[in-house]
Design a protein that fits this description.
This protein has a 4-stranded mixed sheet with strand order 1-2-4-3, with helices on both faces. It has 150 residues and is α+β, with helices and mostly antiparallel strands. The chain has helices at residues 11-26, 28-43, 63-70, 95-111, 115-128, 138-147; strands at residues 47-51, 57-61, 79-82, 85-88. The protein has one domain (12-147).
Length: 150
């Protein structure tokens, strides 16, 4: 044998890599939608960064992104994830917020195209029980729990 040996992946690493690939494919319609929304942000002095973590994402910011997030129909936001695309403010992104948004990316990988419907259903369920549609949404609760590990 030569000095260079092929690195063999452990079965759990191989399963994790396959799971990530399947999750990316399952979330692809959402990611395409996110990129279509973010494209004008990029076109008008925007920037794109690649997040290479256990969860991969495209981080997109720019002046138009700041405007869109400040004037979101549901209220001002610092960031939002659509599939594997995270649209964020140029100056407001913290590690905690990125962790929160990456949890939404993971949720999109699990739920795929059903994620927006499940998210809305969770908000409706909260409202029906007399609770806040955002703060008591199960997906937001999970994202806030992820922030604790940032």
């Amino acid at each position: 044998m030569g000095s260079r040996q092929m690195r063999e992946e452990r079965p759990e690493e191989e399963r994790s890599r396959l799971s990530n690939l399947l999750g990316m494919f399952w979330a692809l319609p959402l990611t395409i939608s996110g990129f279509l929304l973010a494209f004008p942000v990029l076109a008008w002095r925007g920037h794109v960064y690649i997040v290479r973590n256990t969860t991969q994402a495209l981080l997109i910011c720019g002046p138009l992104g700041d405007f869109l997030l400040a004037h979101h129909p549901f209220g001002r936001m610092t960031a939002m994830a659509i599939g594997h695309v995270v649209l964020c403010e140029q100056k407001g992104l913290s590690r905690r917020i990125l962790t929160h948004e990456l949890e939404h990316v993971r949720q999109a990988m699990r739920w795929g195209i059903l994620f927006p419907f499940a998210y809305i259903a969770s908000s409706v369920w909260a409202k029906l029980r007399g609770r806040d549609a955002y703060w008591h949404n199960a997906f937001e609760i999970a994202a806030r729990d992820a922030e604790k590990h940032a």
